[in-house]
Design a protein that fits this description.
Elements: E1 21-27, H1 37-49, H2 52-61, E2 80-81, E3 91-96, E4 106-113, E5 116-120, E6 126-127, E7 131-136, E8 139-146, E9 158-167, E10 172-179
Antiparallel strand pairs: 1-10, 2-3, 3-4, 4-5, 4-6, 7-8, 8-9, 9-10
Length: 183
């Protein structure tokens, strides 16, 4: 089973607490072996051969590793997986909540390395579908939408971007940016 280890938070700026929090952290898939040529070669070879279906299968196997959303389950079967590069050094799946489909339906982002589940992009659950942009084979930028004070869900004008980058030397996902404020 793959799991996440959130390393230390390097910076948290108090001034940004109204809009979110600043974060620089590391996400580590603990069951990936330390750097050695044979494991790196296997991971690279496997990445060339896997597909969106395999990414979905990995998500289904690890759906219990996602943060819980009270009594509402995640709609794993309705997840949108990274169709551009499902088995890149860093890829993703967007998972909606199973009930209450509205503009602000909670969503979860799961991260993958060479098609293998790493874990959620955040332990926090956010409303609204995020926008994911591929920056490279090993980096993603996720823009989260949120409601500013006094706004309705339809008006939600808040936006914040968090960057995720696979670091092959440490075999961790480096996370930088501001997550949305907790609701």
């Amino acid at each position: 089973m793959r799991s996440l280890k959130h390393a230390h938070t390097v910076f948290a700026l108090a001034a940004s607490s109204l809009l979110g929090f600043s974060l620089t952290a590391c996400i580590t898939p603990s069951s990936l072996a330390p750097n050695n040529e044979s494991n790196s070669q296997v991971a690279s070879d496997g990445a060339d051969e896997c597909s969106s279906e395999e990414l979905m299968s990995s998500l289904e196997q690890h759906s219990g590793d996602l943060p819980r959303l009270s009594s509402t389950p995640w709609a794993i079967e309705q997840a949108v997986v990274d169709s551009e590069k499902p088995c890149a050094e860093l890829s993703y799946a967007l998972i909606p909540a199973a009930e209450g489909r509205t503009v602000s339906t909670p969503m979860q982002v799961a991260l993958f390395h060479n098609g293998e589940f790493i874990g959620p992009a955040s332990e926090e659950i956010f409303s609204f579908a995020p926008e994911v942009n591929r920056l490279s084979d090993s980096a993603l930028a996720i823009t989260y939408r949120f409601r500013k004070e006094g706004e309705s869900a339809a008006e939600s004008s808040g936006r914040t971007t968090v960057a995720f980058e696979w670091d092959p030397d440490s075999e961790e996902v480096l996370v930088t940016g501001h997550f949305p404020p907790s609701s």
